[in-house]
Design goal:
The protein has 332 residues and is α/β, with parallel strands linked by helices. It is built from 11 helices and 11 strands. The strands form 2 sheets. A 6-stranded mixed β-sheet has the order 6-7-8-9-11-10, with helices on both faces. Strands 2-1-3-4-5 form a 5-stranded parallel β-sheet, sandwiched between helices.
């Protein structure tokens, strides 16, 4: 039976999850596979349109949150896929409402939801490798790198290079339906030239791309940081700002939160998507993101405002919407 792999494209945990599944279906249980990389902003199309009338496959979904505003439409798409005799496994680590768990349980064959203290790549490794008794040192490394990034442990020097490369490829692939650079990276991580050796994981050309991207971001970063607005709420300080798609939400928020006086930050891009991060455990990134049409973890979340930022009026609308939601959660 063919395998369909769908994973998150915006971060290392999602790309690592994809690489682990590619490796499994190539090395350990060989089967033809179809790889798609998605993001929350894709809406119902997170479940690829091309799958709705297809049959004869198993679908594996990883690291795509189940508490998005369009989850009802996603579930309807999954019902269509299941009605054609296909099997569905969904693995995730984002907090999920009980009613969504119930709905998904009635649609998918395997629903493996775990706490936010784990990661998507850890779940994939456990379910596909550990539970099948597979000893694969390289797969274990890929899982560890996904954890290293998502839980911000930073144990491996190569993690930051991979995060930067993924940011760059998301920038290059922004207008692409197929995301060729990101697909290539997932395949490369699944089968690099040197396996289970973190410092030899990236090729020379990839390291050169990392350096090029770092230089490109430096001047743009200064512009973003100079345009931050500080909002006070509940005795805390929040940064609100717009950033270009050159950055991922994670990377630019990390830069903004170098200012330790800030409790949290909410950044948004020209397409209306954005990220929420925190310095203070009193801040629930997930709660703020949910009010803005998204979701995620308590310590990191994403959202989509539902409109593009193309004019000064759009920017002001985005700014006011975000500030209003901050005050709704934490008061004045």
């Amino acid at each position: 039976m063919n395998s369909v792999i769908t994973s998150h494209r915006k971060d290392l945990d999602g790309i690592s999850s994809a690489a682990l599944m590619v490796r499994y279906f190539t090395k350990h249980r060989p089967a033809p596979f179809f790889l798609t990389l998605k993001d929350y902003g894709d809406g119902p199309s997170m479940i690829d349109d091309r799958l709705l009338e297809a049959s004869g496959f198993e679908m594996y979904i990883s690291d795509l949150a189940t508490d998005q505003k369009f989850i009802g439409e996603v579930i309807e798409r999954l019902k269509r896929i299941r009605s054609r005799g296909n099997r569905i496994t969904w693995m995730d680590h984002h907090p999920t409402k009980p009613e969504i768990i119930k709905e998904l349980s009635e649609v998918v064959d395997v629903l493996d939801l775990r706490p936010s203290t784990t990661t998507g790549s850890m779940i994939v490794y456990d379910r596909m490798y550990s539970m099948n008794g597979l000893d694969d040192p390289h797969a274990k490394l890929i899982s560890a790198l996904g954890r290293d990034s998502d839980l911000m442990e930073n144990r491996y020097p190569v993690t930051n290079r991979l995060v930067t490369l993924i940011d760059y490829y998301n920038y290059l692939d922004a207008e692409s339906f197929f995301h060729p650079n990101l697909i290539h990276l997932a395949l490369h991580l699944a089968f690099p030239r040197a396996e289970a050796e973190p410092e030899r994981l990236l090729e020379k050309y990839q390291l050169e791309q990392v350096e090029k991207y770092v230089q490109l971001k430096d001047s743009e970063r200064r512009k973003v940081l100079s345009g931050i607005e500080t909002v006070s709420a509940g005795g805390m300080q929040f940064a609100v700002f717009q950033y270009p798609k050159l950055f991922s939400g994670s990377s630019i928020c990390n830069d903004v939160l170098q200012n330790k006086e800030l409790s949290g930050c909410i950044g948004f891009t020209e397409d209306g998507s954005g990220s929420v991060r925190r310095n203070d455990e009193r801040v629930s990134c997930r709660t703020i993101a949910q009010l803005l049409g998204g979701g995620g973890h308590e310590f990191a979340a994403g959202f989509n405002l539902g409109f593009r930022i193309e004019t000064t009026g759009d920017r002001e609308r985005a700014r006011q919407t975000i500030i209003q939601k901050i005050h709704e959660v934490y008061g004045n």
